[in-house]
Amino acid sequence: MTPEFTNLEELRNLWQSCRDGHAAPLRSTIEARGLGQAQDHAFIVDCKTVDQARFRRAGGLVRDLMGMDVRGMKADAIFDPAFRNDCAAVLRAVVAGPATAELRLVSPGGPSVAELMARMILLPLRGSQGTIEWVLGALVTDGPIGRPPRRFGIVAQDLVAISGAIPAVPRQGIYDLPEVSEPPRQVGFAEPPAAFEGRKHDQSIRRRGHLRLIVSRD
């Protein structure tokens, strides 16, 4: 396990330890505990209005990828425009499920930058009223960032529904987990691989995974 991947697991373990039997921990509990060595990779997204989700905190890696402070920016800013609807769907599923998500990402290479692979986790957080309205995330990259901004496409994505816990207070206006059809399979980044043939207006991002729902009994 690489040190970068360890940062994802550290954050996931912190989130798990703060749940206290609930579907998701309170944001205040997470912040009181601190994010440890994962802080540079972590971010918090305000999802009170999911379709307008915005960064409220972001570590140094996200700033370096974008070449600027992202606080207040929409959370989909780090995604290629062709994948921003997919980003919104994943955030909506994390909040509505509730669920956890893990994404594998790619930023295409070009004349002056190499292709950059990344992995992201998204974990739901409760607000002070008990509703899930925040998302704790972390991002790690494999290789040098190169020249910013770097924006990503989604190669593969897994959702894990949280069950067997004290439910969060229901929210209005949040959709159920999306139903996603299984795409044709071919050699790709994920194991088992899934295909992405590219958007007609952007062939630079070649691969895309499917959304896989797993029910957790934790």
From TrEMBL:
Domain of life of the organism encoding this protein: Bacteria
Cross-referenced Pfam families: PAS_5
Protein name: PAS domain-containing protein
Native source species: Albidovulum inexpectatum
